[in-house]
Amino acid sequence: MSNPDTAPPRKRLHIDNEQQENELSNDFHDVELRQIHVQSQVKPAKIASTVSEEKQPNFRQLSAEAGGHRRLKSIHGTFLRALEESVVLAPAPATKSDNWYVEDWNGKVVFKTYNEPGRFLNAFPDGSVDYTYTLPKMLEQWVPYCNDDGTWSFQSHHGQWLSAGADGRVCTVKEKGASEDFWLLWWN
Q1: What is the pLDDT of residues 69-98, one digit of tens each?
Q2: Which residue ranges are recorded for the region named Disordered (predicted)?
């Protein structure tokens, strides 16, 4: 039989443990909220320029979000179009040549043409862009970035951005601006 004088301290000790657990839980919650706040302050272009200095975004999640049957529409209202021998930007209305399969490749994406099966969009160090019949290697892989306005930007293996020129030219450029933002539209 226990001594009545010792029973209350045990109960009090139990309450202290619960309070400590609640305080610890609240501390973890505060840390999580601070991390979310800090992450919300980082812009995608800033992430791209300081990937080596900061924690990388979850590219696997971004590549999954960007994936599927997509059309890439530039801010100029043109679509990324795969012709027989080249990739261009073409005005609306969209055609089957504007349809792309955007596929996840270990946190990066590849753009596979719809009208030329087995061809993938690739980028060269000189800034030129075309597509080739090959299984995707580094030249065909792009890092996806979701921008604050819902557009997407894609960085090549060379660190350059997929760009839609107002003149209809597709290339990659070193600095990201508005011409490097694309809307990803679904197609069936």
Answers
A1: 999 999 999 999 999 889 999 999 999 999
A2: 1-25
CB 110 within 8 A of CB 140: yes
Name the nearest CA neighbour of 61 among 130, 144, 158, 134: 144
d(C-alpha 168, C-alpha 176), whole Å:
17
The dihedral formed by the CA atoms of 126, 132, 136 and 142, expressed in degrees to the nearest 10: 40
The domains of the chain are located at 7-41, 59-186
Tokens encoding 82? 């795969």
**Which residues are paired to 182 by β-bridges?**
74, 152
And the tokens for 48? 């791209």
User: How crowded is residue 68: how many other Cβ atoms within 10 Å of its Cβ?
Assistant: 14
Confirm whether pTM is higher than 0.85.
no
Q: Which residue has the tokens 């090549």?
A: 156
The pLDDT tens digits of the residues spanning 112-149 come to: 999 988 899 999 999 999 999 888 999 999 999 999 99
Q: Coil, strand or helix: which one is 188?
A: coil
